[in-house]
């Protein structure tokens, strides 16, 4: 009985050591979140009259690719962000967001898919109060 318990303990330790090496190797490489933070820090904040363009291409596990192009422009108190996403199926979605600083700041956004505006969500229908 003691020999079986000792053997099981040895296999457990060997398994943990083998898995620990893989865990440590994963920690050595930067995660996607770390890469995104580094990219955000490397991208300069738009100053007055400047334009920043960012292109991203993502490849899925099945080999299909999706692309996103983002252009941010600042002119005075107005910042405009234009984003176009192209999916592997060929469909595109375009978003234009404009922020204008007036006091606390306001913003507006419009989104189109294949050139057509995306409909807004319907408001929730009011329900009658229950009668007791």
Describe it.
The protein has 132 residues and is an alpha+beta fold. It is 29% helix and 36% strand. It has a domain of 70 residues. The chain has two helices and six strands, in the order H-H-E-E-E-E-E-E. The chain has a six-stranded antiparallel beta sheet, with no helix packed on it. A hairpin with a 2-residue loop joins strand 2 and strand 3.
Class by alpha and beta content: alpha+beta
> What is the H/E string?
HHEEEEEE
Instruction: Indicate the proportion of strand residues.
Output: 35-45%
Terminal-residue CA separation: 70 Å
User: What does the radius of gyration come to?
Assistant: 26 Å
Count, helices: 2
- Overall 3D form: extended
Adjacency order of strands in the biggest sheet: 1-2-3-4-5-6
Average residue-wise pLDDT: 75
Multimerization status: single chain
Main pleated-sheet profile? 6 strands, antiparallel
> Which stretches are poorly predicted, pLDDT < 50 over at least 5 residues?
none
Count of extended strands: 6
Percentage of helical residues? 25-40%
Please describe the structure with a list of short key phrases separated by commas or semicolons.
2 helices; single chain; alpha+beta; six-stranded antiparallel beta sheet
Give the helix/strand layout.
Blueprint: H1 2-28, H2 32-42, E1 51-59, E2 65-75, E3 78-86, E4 92-100, E5 106-113, E6 116-117
Antiparallel strand pairs: 1-2, 2-3, 3-4, 4-5, 5-6
């Amino acid at each position: 009985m003691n020999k079986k318990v000792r053997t099981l303990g040895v296999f457990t330790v060997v398994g943990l050591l083998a898995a620990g090496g893989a865990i440590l190797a994963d920690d050595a490489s930067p995660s996607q979140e770390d890469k995104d933070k580094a990219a955000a820090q490397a991208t300069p904040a738009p100053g007055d009259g400047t334009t920043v363009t960012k292109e991203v291409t993502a490849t899925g596990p099945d080999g299909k690719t999706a692309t996103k192009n983002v252009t941010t422009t600042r002119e005075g108190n107005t910042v405009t962000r234009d984003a176009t996403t192209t999916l592997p199926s060929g469909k595109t979605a375009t978003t234009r967001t404009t922020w204008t600083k007036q006091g606390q700041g306001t913003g507006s956004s419009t989104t189109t898919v294949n050139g057509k505006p995306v409909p807004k969500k319907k408001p929730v229908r009011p329900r009658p109060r229950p009668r007791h």
